[in-house]
Amino acid sequence: MVTESPMPSAVGAGSRERAGRIGRRARPRSPDAGVTRGEIIQAILALVCGVAIFAVDTFTPLGSAVAVLYGIVVMLASGVSHGWQLVRLAYVCILLTVTSYLLVHGVSYGTAPFLRFIVSLSAIFIATALVLRNQASNEALRAQAALLDLTHDAIFTRSLEDRIAFWNRGAEELYGCPAAEALGASPHQLLHTEDTADVPAISAELLRAGHWEGELTHRRRDGAQVVVASRWAVRYDESGRPVEILESNTDITNRKRADAELRRSEARYRAIFEGARVGIWSADYTGVKARLNELLAAGELAGPCAPEIAAHARTAEGFMPDLLGRITDIEVNDALVRMSGARDRADLIARVDQMLAPEATAPFSGLLQALVGQDVAYEAETPFRTFAGEPLPTWMSVAITRSDGRDRLLITVTDLRPRRHAEEALARAREDLAHANRLATFGEFTATIAHEVNQPLAAISANGAAALRWLDRPEPQLGETRAALERIIRDGRRASEIVAGIRGMLKKSDPQYARLDIPQLIDDVARLVQRELQARGATLKVRTAPDLPAVRGDHVQLQQVLINLLINGAQAMAGTPGPRTLEVNAELADDEHVLVQVRDSGAGISEENMGRLFGAFFTTKPDGMGMGLAICRSTVEAHGGRIWAERPDGPGALIAFSLPTAQAAAA
Ligand code: ADP
């Protein structure tokens, strides 16, 4: 006879055999499913019993209520017959009982056999009813067990003696362990619950509170680790004694892995954020964008572009502070705090409006344009101010991300002060070098300079002597004297011009950018180097295009460029046979550039040296420094121009440079 009570309440007695039965019965099996061997035996037994009872009841003179035993037939048949089948069997048993009674006793009432007959019929009826009720509850149980198998969670029950009594399909799948193997085993040994879980403590807590939940690490049958969210609950019997424990485990291995990866990536991001040497400002600008759109819709803001936003910022008081107040969820790193001179992060966030120098309005407006215009990035040089009020030139780079209707900006701020200092130091070093180069060049020119200055001085002396002679005449020749005095004045001016020019070249002063006439510049240089060139047997030929536009530059620096090129040219021609001609040609390269070429008829430049002429310290001269062309290049480039060497057809070398016209430089 089947006596199991519904699952999971049926489990709990703790015996392995009992638990095994329940575990197996928990598999959902419809009544129509194939019958087991045990059930066939039961059916045969039922048939044999039925036949035997009929025979004994009908053909033996036993006066007892043998037909009562038909109830056992019904019970035995319950394994293979269900519902109406069982009812029909009960009818057969009743029919057999009636038949036996009529055959043995005929139609008689009120006798003792008749009473036994009634008792037998009642027994068949009661047994059938009980079996039907039991079958119905078993069906409900099967349905519940089938439900437990539908879930992906691993669900099992275990006795208080720690033996598994029920093991659902989810558990089979999660742990890779069939129910047949799991049933009766200790779950913590079977699943290798990790030592980190204090199972005795958990069990104690479970018995105290009636339930427990937490995370456990188990091992599958194949050795792989699984992390589960585990919920334990105690089932009590009617008297309140704990009977068994229901454990439900949800596999969270992948979620844990994803969580761990997320945490790792967050930690990485945090480390970058905190450790970055650039300042970082990350914040939610959704409110700022909404406000700008409101102003645009209301027509208060003329347009969504940076110039219009900047114009509005200049005229509408409180516009910028209002926008800054709408930035939320702000995160800043220490580098930005240090850069700004704020006390701490909170101080920086609270007073960030003080960093917005008036000059920062334009780049900040560009950022707002990018925000409203759905751009994803923006960058600009932005002059902020430190909290101490000092200029803070920066490069601001903005990445805009949009998700869930929110606009988040990640702004990196690079402090340009160290770079500016380095640039200034570099410019100073370049000027010092150029100055040293000029001194060195003029050192070589001393004879020329002496001659240049001497010439007008000698002329002044001669004219002075002549003037005196004209005056000493019995009849002073005033006209001649006047002419001599005029020449003295002219030569005096000339001498002082030469001295001023040389002083200008030798004096160390900051570059003075002004409009410069290239033909005039060439003329000045030609006068300075004329004698030097003559001494080297070189003839200078200058050709300048008419109406050449002016360039913008420093007179002394550009003179130095030309002097270096001319002296190099003259040196390259030293010792070469034939006429030594230095040609200087100035013309318009294109609408925006003036081109100056210096060509000599010297030894020329080898292919190999072409690429390194302008490098510092490259020289082929025994007493050369190798800085002349390097200085020419840095000077020309500082003027926004370009310098290069060419190997012209025929002898010699050609060094050319181009400079932007004053108009182009101003644009
Ligand atoms: P330095 O005159 O001290 O050598 P520069 O930088 O002025 O330094 O010149 C570097 C080198 O370039 C020279 O040593 C020379 O080899 C080459 N060079 C410069 N100008 C010419 C030229 N006009 N013709 C041939 N070689 C030249």
TrEMBL record:
PROSITE patterns: HIS_KIN, PAC, PAS
InterPro entries (UniProt xref): HATPase_C_sf (IPR036890), HATPase_dom (IPR003594), His_kinase_dom (IPR005467), HisK_dim/P_dom (IPR003661), HisK_dim/P_sf (IPR036097), PAC (IPR001610), PAS (IPR000014), PAS-assoc_C (IPR000700)
Molecular function in Gene Ontology: ATP binding; phosphorelay sensor kinase activity
Residue spans crossing the bilayer: 34-56, 62-82, 89-108
Domain Histidine kinase residue range list: 448-663
Pfam families: HATPase_c (PF02518), HisKA (PF00512), PAS (PF00989)
Family annotation (CDD domains): HisKA, PAS
Domain PAC intervals: 212-264
EC number: 2.7.13.3
GO BP annotations, alphabetical order: regulation of DNA-templated transcription
Annotated region (Disordered), positions in chain: 1-33
Keywords on record: ATP-binding, Kinase, Membrane, Nucleotide-binding, Phosphoprotein, Transferase, Transmembrane, Transmembrane helix, Two-component regulatory system
Reaction(s) this enzyme catalyzes, per UniProt: ATP + protein L-histidine = ADP + protein N-phospho-L-histidine
Residue ranges of every copy of the PAS domain listed in the record: 140-210
Name used for this protein in its record: histidine kinase
Organism: Phenylobacterium hankyongense
Lineage per the UniProt record: Bacteria, Pseudomonadati, Pseudomonadota, Alphaproteobacteria, Caulobacterales
